[in-house]
Amino acid sequence: MQHRIVVIGAGYTGATAAGRLARRLHHEDVAITLVNAEPDFVERVRLHQLAVGQSLKPRPFSEMFAGTGVALKLGKVTGVDVDRRTVTVVAADGAGADAEAEELEYDTLVYALGSGWNDHGVPGTAEHAYEIASRPGALRLRERLAGLGAGQPVVVVGGGLTGVEAATEIAEARPDLDVALAVRGGLGDWLSPKGRRHLRKVVDNLGITVHEDTAVAAVEADHVTTADGTAVPAAVTIWTAGFAVHPIARATTLEITGTGQIVADPTMRSVSHPEVYAIGDAAMVMGPGGKPLRMSCASGVPTAWQAADAIAARLTGGKMPTTTPRYFNQCISLGRKEGLIQYVTADDRAVGAALTGRLAAKYKELVCKGAAWGVANPLMGIPARKRRVVADTVREGAGVKTAA
């Protein structure tokens, strides 16, 4: 009898966890199912590139997981019952209330549904703004940008990593457009002085107008209105002001935070349901200095490693992982020719050192390629240590019988 592991969501974290579990556990002892609505892997950190018309390398899951023992289930997750230990899935091409649903039973669930854009309830955002937190959103924006004539105004709302990358990518790819960036604080105010200076130089060279200390209070079809009532022209508004986690966890009996993240222990296991592991943006877990890990690929992949290794250890009676996910740098693309690597402390605070210019752009490109390679080659990069599952954990759930 096999221990059933279901991984829901196949972004960086879910796909990484599924591949690592297949690497750690013997295929005769476990059945690993990876559920995702799309048939190929989406490089979310490159969606701003997709939006300006660049092509991304296709990475079909059928090829990535061929021969790994991971079973792919294409479908949209519509519900999770953590008390019955089931996941409800509707076929990816299903539509409407009559779409046929299927229930998957699990002994261990890896919850990796991630996050999407967060409009924060700002009036007009849902109706008029574009998002690049998903491939459909990036493709929709791509079509709209392609139809813009010279001189048309584009406003990017949000001065974090996503906003900065989107604004610079668009300004470089479409120098004929009038690109503006609206930020609540100062431009790059989380960076070191060197990082801020370089970001300012690149933004100025690209002709981007920066509205600092500016909150957007409403979005209309042809402009945004700031908190002080100023109307900023916008043929296209791109909203990058934060992320919201997938809402399904709120409908369960899992212990969650006010933001809907699943509260997890240092091994990424739910504090309320030990057979559930939350990773990536879906998880609220503490990092160095007692600070919550931020929503990012930099946080997500290490949590996937942590969860997979903890599940394997609990199922096989092996050694539990003790590493705390930490930060090393923030990698920021500023178009294809410029970049910024801001070095940070373990708890993500900027230090004085920063790498800038073309070398930083190449560094960021290597990081992106490395992350995608790690997902696309799930059985490579770590030693093959397939261990046998302890008999009394097969149906009890990882961590119930075996002590942490």
UniProtKB/TrEMBL annotation:
GO MF annotation terms: oxidoreductase activity
The enzyme's E.C. designation: 1.6.5.-
The keyword Flavoprotein appears for this protein: yes
Co-factor(s): FAD
A Pfam cross-reference name: Pyr_redox_2
Keywords on record: FAD, Flavoprotein, Oxidoreductase
Residue ranges constituting the FAD/NAD(P)-binding domain according to the UniProt record: 4-308
Matches recorded under InterPro entries: FAD/NAD-bd_sf, FAD/NAD-binding_dom, NADH-Q_oxidoreductase
Similarity remark: Belongs to the NADH dehydrogenase family.
UniProt-recorded name of the protein: NAD(P)/FAD-dependent oxidoreductase
Species annotation: Streptomyces coerulescens
